[in-house]
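Marked as duplicate of an earlier ticket. Keeping the data here for the record.
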Amino acid sequence: MEEVMISKSELESLAKKLMFEMNDDEYETLEKEFDVILKQMDLIGNIKDIDKVEPMTFPFDLELNDDYLREDVYNNEITFDDMKINVKDYEDNRVKVPKVVE
C-alpha cells in the first residue's frame, strides 16, 4: 500500500479552519501521532479477507443484556439559582458565553 503522510502544512491549515492555536512542539507531536494511526490503519487494511467480516456496531447483544444499559430519564434537578453559582455572567435566566464564531 502507498504510504500516506500528514504534513505540518496540512495540520496548520486544519488548525486554522478549526480556530486552534498550536505551537511547533504540538504540531510535531500530532504529526507523530498521525503517523502511528496511519500505520495501524495500513496494517488493518492488509488483513486478508477483512472485507468478509461483518463490522461490529456494539460489543454486547442488547437483547440478552437489557439491564446493562439504563433508561434515559430526564431529571431537572439543577435550578438556575444553583447554576448561577458556577457561571461568570448571566442575564434573564440565560448563561452568557463568549462568542466562538467570527
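See parent ticket for discussion. The CA atoms of residues 57 and 81 lie 41 Å apart.
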